[in-house]
Batch of 4 targets.
Target 1
Amino acid sequence: MINNFNVLNEERELRLDILLSNRFKEHSRSYLQHLISDGQVLINGDKVKKREKCKVGDKIQITFLEKQQIDLSPKKIDIDILYEDDYLLIVNKPSGLVVHPGTKNLTDTFVNALVYHLNGTPQCGDENRPGIVHRLDKDTSGVMIAVKDPKCHKKLSAMFKEHKIEKHYLAICKGVPKQVGDIQTLIGRHTTKRNKMCVKSENGKLAHTHIEILSHSNTMSLILAKPTTGRTHQIRVHLKYLQSPVIGDVIYGDKKETCSRLMLHAHKIIFLHPITEQRINVIAPLPEEFRQKMPKSSMKNG
């Protein structure tokens, strides 16, 4: 069922999830937050986040899903665990694995694998995305954290928001980026292609990525990208902006290009454990198909 309405004067500046909770009291806020994260809530035609502030006259479209569609169930899916303790675990997510259930994938996700691994649902986070504090795109591989403990979840979520998690990505891109170092732009939803983000001159959100070239050939480069913000498709958009899209990127690159996968890998994550205060430095080994595609010149240590 689809519901359309406009934001009223008394609803201005409310967070989207709070506004929806006030309007649709028959539904829990966590259910409404799931609809937002699953792209079932649009403001003026754009997908948004739950903390989005609403303005008077904004047109909101919400598509309600059957609740049984988003019920979680354990599924035996092999996951490569890089680190685990009583509070959290860190995995090497393969390319092609969706992080959490949505309308297009209800059971074959990392969350279903997590529920199976823990013999139960983590009692923290969104009830439809339990244990999840951040995510990787389906086609991106590499380091991802899941949380078991509510206190750890709260603290780690705050650390992501405050940019206290150091993330290193490796990407193989076409050509050589026209600029390296600190790339800072505004990123927002594409005006006509709703599945795409793009660099904007205004009405976007600040996105910052530090980019280094590790090696290159005549046709491609291996780059290290360190994002300090977490915008949707941020690294992919910035490399497109630098005229060197990620190889295998069917959204921002060459759709005719033949490649087995998106050549973007979350290689390393560094942070202070929110409970034990231990320094965590975890590296996800490169998948074989990524290694085979890399430029042949030598790579710097990293």
Target 2
Amino acid sequence: MSYLRSVFVSKEVVGLGEGGDVSREFDKVTERIILNTLRDYLGDVRMISEEVGVVGYGSWLAVVDPVDGSVNFEAGIPIASVSIGLAKNYENVRVRDIVAAVVAEVFRDAIYYFDRDGGFKVIGVSTRRRSPPADVVLGYFESLESYMPFLELTRLLGRRPKLRSLGSAALDIVYVALGSALGFVDTRAKLRNVDVAAALSIANSLGAKAYLCNGVDALELDLVKLGRVECMVVGYDGVTARILLEAVRDSRRGIEVTTDHRSRGTPLGPSPLL
């Protein structure tokens, strides 16, 4: 973390990461620092990361997002995190196999930590899980299609929660688990398993629940290789997560009906958004 806060940070573009996104020097340097530190403590480690893909061999698997919220970090917006999950390096390792995880905020001294022996801890700040959660929904809303689940959620809840897009999925998920928001939604198919693996482990330890939008428990996400998360919801608890999942499914059915009518040239009447 000291590197990311130092005057030596370079934001120069150095190519494309293994995941296909623009890679900046601070991504590469942070990733290298993490890998070297893990090797110092654990010996040989296999690492899966957004920048290099899968590297190394060993009895441990480290699932790493060196800078989650790199667009924010590059722009100087103070919401970004470092995310690391550790699991035994089995053949078909999944998120549920993570035994220790950390999500650390870059711009303040807040570290969210989980391990199976000690449970959940927060280092650097004083916080506890809110009950009930704040009436806020977090997520990414970059198109009409990605915004539609929020409208459906308003209908299902009978009220309109506040909507916020923070730009760091790992922090979004941790904040939901802590009750700073009631849910998180992302339907863009841009997230990757390394972005969310550690945060999902932390959230699960606090009682939050996450689903892929096909209904599969998000703890079943594969960590064998770098992969995309097509669509995911995270709720403060199981009931909220299922409502979020229903909102996504209802919105998709609505989009399919609209598309079908347009292809047939059938008028639909005025848009509910106008």
Target 3
Amino acid sequence: MAGSLAKVFSLEKGRSVTWEQRWHPLLERWVTITSHRGGRPWQGLSATANDDHRPSFDPQCYLCPGNRRISGERNPQYAQVYVFDNDHPSLGATVAPPPPQSTFYRVAPAAGRCRVMCYDPDHQRRLSHLENNELEIVLKSWRHETEMLSDEGWAHVFIFENNGEVVGVSNPHPHCQIYAFPFVVDTIARELRAAKTYREAHQRPLFQDLIQAERDDQRRILIDNEGWLAFVPYFAQFPFETMICPHRPVRQLTELSDLDIQDLAVVMRAVLGRLDGVLGQAQSYILSVHQAPAALIDPEDYSLYIHIQPLLRAPGLQKFLAGVETAAGQFLNDAAPEAHAQALMEVPLN
């Protein structure tokens, strides 16, 4: 599929160059699309392909069935999804209050819960390798964890997967993490404010207008089934970035029916399969579940979506978040989202 990507880049030369600022309606900031820079000379580091030849069982892996973790706990001989409390949590359910600071600075306990979910006992499988019914089990587990942690009183449940060495994942076993916070994390707080501002200005839900805009355009849509729409957003900050949105507003995973989850599994499998095939090497990415806090007052202000942010922009080339992205907060995308969507659509599905 690397050949189809080269074809896409060649189409962007000359008159078809996309060089513009696009407004990100969820984060309320500009994204710079600079498609003429996609084929620029590169003398930096090259990203190696993810190792798809790992054994199905690794006796040194902390997450494989039956192995002992760093905490001393032994994993059960699990056959499907396995969830446990992180042995090295960033947040703790019982954290001592920090010492008081001056009146200028604010401080609070690093309270919360951190959970780890193994998707599958097979060490070498990826989320994209799971069958639809296996993906449904993962999604139902996400739903259950959201409900359980929300019932415990945590304000916000954030689910994410760091996939691949480029992202910095510490263990290649197929897994994700689930963080429960006593507050709403920054990105979701930004999106909540944007959704509220938009509805007050236009008397319409932001997410519904976003979905309609993509449907009207059609060029960036990857798959559209009974319940979900997957697309490369017009304002994509990352190469091959993908959003998966429900047709109807859904605040949290807890509001999804089993049929909703069945439809979502089909879409996710197709999207992840195309991402793994478009560059001729398994894609490294950050997958996250954007869902509302448990105490959202107005359900029209927000809708759940699955966000996939790939970190490879071309075969062997990593998308680095360097000076302008990290220091200035101004994202540059080196290819037009329309071109990335076209390349993804050319990947045959199994």
Target 4
Amino acid sequence: MANVLAFAEQRDGQIGSTAREAVGVAASLADSLGEEAHALAFGGVGLSGSAGLLGGFGAAAIAVGEHALLADYNPEAYVDLVAEHVKNGGYSAVVFPASTLGKDLAPRVAAKLDVPLASDATAVSVNEGAISVTRPVFSGKAFARVEIAARPAIVSIRPNVFQPHERSAAGTVSTFSPDVDPSSWRVRVVERRGASGDQLDVTEASIIVSGGRGMKDPDNWTILEELRDAIGPDVALGASRAVVDAGWRPHGEQVGQTGKTVAPKLYVAVGISGAVQHLAGMRTAKTIVAINRDADAPIFGVADYGIVGDLFEIVPKLTEEIAALKQGD
């Protein structure tokens, strides 16, 4: 019987949210197809210790390839190993996260298997035995629905769109040592540099305070930092593409079509007009608050709460009120 495979991305030896999302989608497809959901992960020695949690999200079997040379992602090593595993398993479908890693790996695997790729999916279902995918086109201005006739069907899913739900499965972990030959690699990781400080990543934050060109100057970001600090520790700073392109903020904070897709409980957009590329990355937030002096700004079209006015007056007052409320607690 064919099954559905989820590629489980790891970072620093830990299985993250993108892996849980991929397994959740694979489990949903498997249920509709009458199959099982399996997971595949590659990393350094000891990865199997954290991979077992995927059984709680629907993975009946979890294969973990451990090798010291696989601790860091290498496209030339990973693509051959993943493609070989898919072939040997006879899978009907493979689900990748459309993360930075997944956007590099999924098309390579699809090319290796000589099948098409439906990338950046925002909805995946089964229609009369065929896998149907909804994905944004034209920078999120429209959505295309496609059915994948090829087998295996290769799909990458947009991060933070498919919220993983706990579901019981066998979660049997099998560890193996892949054959790795670095002599043929043309690409190697020689150094890794993380963002300075211990700032929370926007994809992991439950609350995001994001700024745009309305901030006028990078030095004014202290206003947003003070608001972030007043709200609490689970808050990350975000930024629009225009701000990042101008060099005001690092690319790691960029939210949008060419940045990161987020789905926090609360998204505060300050001085962001709401271009369609930005909306594509944050419109799935549960609650959106917009602060902008332009009453006709597109951001108000998706906002749950909107404040029209001067952000340089509104945000400090908001920070002051939040701090006072927290002191009262």
